[in-house]
Write a structure and sequence with these properties.
Bound molecules: NADP nicotinamide-adenine-dinucleotide phosphate, iron/sulfur cluster
CATH architecture of the largest domain: Alpha-Beta Barrel
Number of strands: 27
Distance between the termini: 39 Å
Largest sheet: 8 strands, parallel, barrel
CATH topology of the largest domain: TIM Barrel
CATH class of the largest domain: Alpha Beta
Helix content: 25-40%
Strand content: 15-25%
Shape: globular
Number of helices: 23
Length: about 675
């Protein structure tokens, strides 16, 4: 079904079994050798799942290149020996793996960081030390030593990280390279560093070792590389001995989203396609390619020779095998949320995956077949109930899943309606198929009663009955202009042109996006999306940046919270800025530190501070309450009284700051432990 994607790729000295690259993704397991058994198990599962070539998370070649203090580094033979476990395990499972060499440069989150020039990055608090010429030479030698050690450790190759605004990229762009010696000034001088690294690494490791160079094809920063420079670099890297060129899109400090869920699928493949005719070696495209049909299309259209997917392999280690066996409908698709992967890594927690809590936990979260199948009832087919029911059934238990409404998904159905969150449809599709595959008995439009549960002969009941929107108590709230987010997102309630939203959590932001964007979702229309974020053809504009063209919001929306400070502070670490920017661009006003006083015909009256000062009217035709949730657990008491054992899951357990990540993780763990 996917002839281009599944075709082998002959690299001359070795052949990759298909065109998929499991792209580099820092998981946190790289930082300590004591975690290497877990890292080995993580990669081994993906090797068995038939990933073509895998790349580890980044390893610094020396201390100056650390991403964070005491983070992953490969600089000694003793360290290299510890990697043997990973490479041997992967090879035993039929896989191929390359080690990524990542020098963070000024993105290093530590005081020892170095860079071409003494310029602090906007995303780290440390000012780097400017390297002397000898210092630059030392960094090159560190890259070469790291690559040699990778070969000794049994890796099939290395990827040299030259994009995303890291060290090598910092030499390339005038934005960060103000040097006047042989490493700065003209482009020939600025690109000397990557070319020296690639050619010396090639010389040291021999010809039969994969050398991927990750090249920033569109920097998305002011004063980034021009298109001519990108082409010149790619050709230089090829001449210097690279086997493959991988695509890098945007620096980390860029103000254009590059991988979030609201980025259209394969949004950047056109950039790789632009470069492809200029080089003779195979070229890899990347970013927001999460399903096999999109990967296939990208290859069929000649955008690239291989497709890099990092997060999709976290979501489903068997991505390729399922595609090959015609089981596309069973693929657990990465929804691009970043909630359990990058948000964790950037807050120094171990990565996992919202849709697959086993990711990076392969050794401890195991869904073992049960020796003693029993009958269980799961009540509620939202995220928690679905995860619990399918894991129980996968393990061999008999499961009845009760759902009061006519469809599965619970709150996920509302998420899927938000423009830019279309990927939630994949999640709903996956669960629907997973219920079939595992053989869960799904009872839709069937509210579970205590009597029925008690009479059902169940060994245990799992209550995943979810949440109900928190009600607020305000004078005037009984007017019909006051709606809950459920009325708006699920009930299709009519909403006026001027709206006040009470509560600026995840759902307040979602509702605001829904109301200002209307039915128009730029995520489904690439040219519109690129224009809105100010992305230009890098041949026309250096770095690929142009003035953004954002349509006006469809409504006048004010988003309010009682806490002082910036609304949206609790949103995802890597995605919150995108939501805030999108709303600001569409004129949404965000006000914190308010007291809600009353509602009347003209709108919502608020004051500020403990003394309830500075009264203000937010003129509004509709007021939408997004003030969090309360647990729904009415069945707990009667089950308790009847002596039927039960467990509360998801929002029914703890509603505060409920999200799908916590619900799925908790429910899967509970079901695995039964
Ligand atoms: P939430 O994030 O806990 O936010 C609830 C909001 O209501 C807060 O802004 C809170 O702010 C306000 N609030 C709480 N009690 C109130 C009261 N009695 N009166 C008035 N305001 C009150 O909950 P949520 O927005 O319902 O979202 C639920 C969860 O869904 C989130 O925690 C999130 O994990 C998940 N979600 C995530 C995303 C995402 O982008 N990652 C998107 C949607 C949903 P003040 O107390 O300061 O007023
Ligand atoms: Fe994809 Fe979200 Fe899983 Fe990360 S946490 S791999 S973005 S589904």
């Amino acid at each position: 079904m996917y002839p281009h994607l599944l075709a082998p790729l002959d690299l001359g000295f070795t052949t990759l079994r298909n065109r998929t690259l499991m792209g580099s993704m820092h998981t946190g397991l790289e930082d300590r050798a004591e975690h290497f058994p877990r890292l080995a198990a993580y990669f081994a599962e993906r090797a068995r799942g038939e990933a073509g070539l895998m790349v580890t998370g980044g390893f610094a070649p020396n201390i100056e290149g650390w991403l964070s203090p005491f983070g992953s580094r490969l600089a000694t033979r003793a360290a290299a020996r510890k990697h043997r476990l990973i490479t041997n395990t992967v090879h035993a499972d039929g896989g191929k793996i390359a080690l990524q060499i990542l020098h963070a440069g000024r993105y290093g989150y530590h005081p020892l960081s170095v860079a071409p020039s003494r310029l602090k990055s906007p995303i780290t608090p440390f000012t780097p030390r400017e390297l002397s010429s000898r210092g630059v030479e030392r960094q090159i030698r560190a890259f070469v030593r790291c690559a040699t050690l990778a070969r000794e450790a049994g890796y099939d190759g290395v990827e040299i990280m030259g994009s995303e605004g890291y060290f090598i990229n910092q030499f390339l762009a005038r934005h960060t390279n103000r040097r006047t010696d042989e490493w700065g000034g003209s482009y020939e001088n600025r690109m000397r560093l990557p070319l020296e690294i690639v050619s010396r690494v090639r010389e040291a490791v021999g010809r039969d070792f994969i050398l991927i160079y990750r090249l920033s094809m569109i920097d998305l920063i002011p004063d980034g590389s021009s298109w001519d420079e990108v082409v010149q670099l790619a050709q230089g890297v090829e001449r210097a001995g690279a086997t493959l060129i991988n695509t890098g899109i945007g620096w980390h400090e860029a103000r254009v989203p590059t991988i979030a869920t609201s980025v259209p699928r394969a949004a950047w493949a056109w950039v790789t396609k632009k470069l492809k005719p200029h080089v003779g070696i195979p070229i890899i495209t990347s970013n927001r390619i999460n399903v096999p049909e999109v990967a296939e299309q990208v290859l069929a259209e000649g955008c690239a020779d291989m497709v890099s997917m990092a997060r999709p392999f976290l979501a489903d280690p068997e991505f390729v095998r399922k595609a090959r066996e015609g089981r596309r409908d069973e693929i657990n698709v990465c929804i691009g949320c970043n909630q359990a992967c990058l948000d964790h890594v950037f807050s120094r927690r171990m990565a996992s995956c919202l849709v697959n809590p086993r990711a990076c936990h392969e050794t401890e979260l195991v869904y073992r077949p049960t020796p003693t199948p029993r009958r269980f009832a799961v009540v509620g087919a939202g995220a928690a109930g679905l995860a619990c029911a399918t894991v129980l059934a996968e393990r061999g238990h008999r499961v009845d899943l009760f759902e009061a409404s006519e469809r599965i998904g619970g709150q996920l159905n509302m998420a899927a309606r938000i423009p830019g969150k279309e990927e939630f449809h994949e999640m709903l599709r996956y669960w629907a198929r997973r219920l079939e595959v595992t053989g869960v008995n799904v009872l839709l439009a069937t509210p579970a009663t205590a009597e029925r549960l008690c009479a059902g002969g169940y060994a245990h009941v799992f209550l995943a009955t979810g949440v109900t929107p928190r009600r607020i108590d305000l004078p005037g709230q009984d007017q019909n202009r006051v709606l809950s987010y459920v009325d708006v997102l699920a009930g299709g309630a009519a909403v006026g042109d001027r709206v006040a939203i009470i509560g600026a959590g995840g759902i307040g932001f979602d509702v605001a996006e829904f109301l200002v964007k209307g039915e128009h979702s730029p995520t489904l229309d690439l040219p519109v999306w690129l224009a809105e974020w100010g992305v230009a053809d890098p041949e026309q504009a250096r770095g690929g940046l142009a003035p953004p063209r954002v349509p006006e919001g469809r409504r006048k929306v004010t988003l309010l919270q009682r806490k002082a400070g910036k609304p949206g502070a609790g949103l995802g670490k890597t995605t919150g800025w995108i939501h805030r920017a999108e709303l600001k661009q569409r004129g949404v006003e965000m006000i914190g530190g308010v007291n809600y006083e009353r509602i009347d015909a003209s709108g919502l009256h608020i004051t500020f501070g403990e003394k309830r000062e500075a009264p203000m009217l937010i003129e509004a035709d509709s007021i939408v309450v997004c003030a969090g949730q309360e647990p729904l657990r009415a069945l707990a008491e009667p089950l308790e009284a009847a002596g039927l054992p039960y467990t509360l899951l998801g929002g029914a357990d703890v509603a505060a700051e409920l999200d799908a990540k916590r619900a799925i993780d908790q429910a899967s763990r509970v079901a695995a432990a039964v």
